[in-house]
């Protein structure tokens, strides 16, 4: 064994946070071959494997976790050298995956908050509605609906939100307002495309309004909102989105609704990265401030 290179340790840090050689290469501005060569050199110097392949990508071995601790100390020391005052300037890219509505109304304001506090951080938001990825997909943080089943990652409950049934005033003028759950069978539903729905917790329409036929369906919740506003049917919508529109009326509140939860998923190594920690703190801050809106009790 020999003394490991600081550069090799920093490469391990990048791979440990993303779980992927390609993502680490992008973050460090090198190619995939360089990452592989650096990891091999580090393993030779330490006399053992630092990474092992799994279904979730590259995972740290026990030796790898020890090396990662050293790499984090090197990163912190380099940061202090850049800023002799001792306060590290946070910089780099933080990648967040979240549902459409969460991306727009929670993640985007949180990203702006991060930028105000740390101008060196860039925030990338990928809007998608899916289960938590088992391979992290190059994202630092994922926000999903429902408690995720993940391995070698942390899952934290962020906030609850309410789905309610809504109609436009024009729709009600033309079709009347249902006065009971039984009346819903006379109306059509605006919601997700059932065959393309990837998130089990979002399959609530069939439980709370099983007799409603589909009218306009989409994989995008903003389409649900606009189709409902255009009198396309009754929309099962997140209250924090629908309540922003005075032309929408909530139908049978307290009778036809569902409480769901947003969960944050990330690798432990990634959450220790100061830039990611700053983004997560901002997301939590915005979600807490919007709690009443998310639950549909602030209108």
Automatic annotation (TrEMBL):
Q: Which family does it belong to?
A: Belongs to the LysR transcriptional regulatory family.
What protein name does the entry list? Answer: LysR family transcriptional regulator
Q: Which GO terms describe its molecular function?
A: DNA-binding transcription factor activity; sequence-specific DNA binding
DNA-binding keyword on record: yes
Residue ranges of domain HTH lysR-type in the record: 4-61
In which organism is this protein found? Rhodococcus gordoniae
- Alphabetically ordered keywords of this record: DNA-binding, Transcription, Transcription regulation
Listed Pfam families: HTH_1 (PF00126), LysR_substrate (PF03466)
GO biological-process terms attached to the record: DNA-templated transcription
Q: Which InterPro entries has this protein been placed in?
A: LysR-type_TF_proteobact-type, LysR_HTH_N, LysR_subst-bd, WH-like_DNA-bd_sf, WH_DNA-bd_sf
Highest taxon of the lineage: Bacteria
Task: List the top taxonomic levels of the source.
Answer: Bacteria, Bacillati, Actinomycetota, Actinomycetes, Mycobacteriales
Q: Which gene encodes it?
A: dmlR
């Amino acid at each position: 064994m020999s003394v490991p290179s600081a550069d090799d340790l920093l490469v391990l840090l990048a791979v440990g946070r993303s779980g992927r050689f390609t993502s680490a290469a992008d973050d460090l501005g090198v190619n995939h071959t360089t990452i592989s060569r650096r990891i091999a050199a580090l393993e030779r110097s330490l006399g053992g494997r630092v990474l092992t392949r799994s279904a979730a990508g590259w995972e740290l071995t026990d030796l790898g976790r020890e090396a990662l601790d050293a790499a984090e100390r090197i990163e912190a020391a380099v940061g202090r050298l850049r800023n002799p005052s001792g306060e590290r300037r946070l910089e780099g890219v933080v990648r967040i995956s979240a549902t459409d509505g969460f991306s727009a109304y929670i993640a985007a304001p949180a990203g702006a908050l991060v930028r105000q506090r740390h101008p060196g951080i860039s925030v990338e938001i990928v809007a998608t509605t899916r289960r938590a990825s088992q391979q992290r997909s190059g994202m630092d943080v994922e926000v999903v609906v429902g408690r995720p089943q993940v391995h070698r990652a942390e899952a934290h409950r962020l906030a609850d939100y309410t789905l309610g049934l809504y109609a436009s005033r024009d729709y009600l003028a033309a079709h009347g307002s249902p006065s009971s759950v039984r009346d819903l069978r006379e109306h059509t539903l605006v919601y997700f495309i059932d065959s393309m729905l990837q998130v089990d917790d979002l399959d609530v329409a069939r439980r709370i309004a099983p007799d409603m036929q589909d009218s306009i369906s989409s994989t995008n919740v903003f389409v649900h909102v606009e189709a409902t506003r255009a009198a396309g049917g009754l929309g099962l919508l997140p209250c924090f989105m629908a309540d922003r529109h005075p032309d929408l009326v909530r139908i049978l509140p307290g009778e036809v609704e569902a409480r769901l939860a947003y969960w944050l998923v990330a690798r432990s190594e990634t959450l220790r990265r100061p830039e990611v920690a700053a983004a997560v703190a901002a997301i939590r801050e915005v979600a807490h401030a919007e709690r009443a809106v998310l639950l549909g009790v602030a209108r």
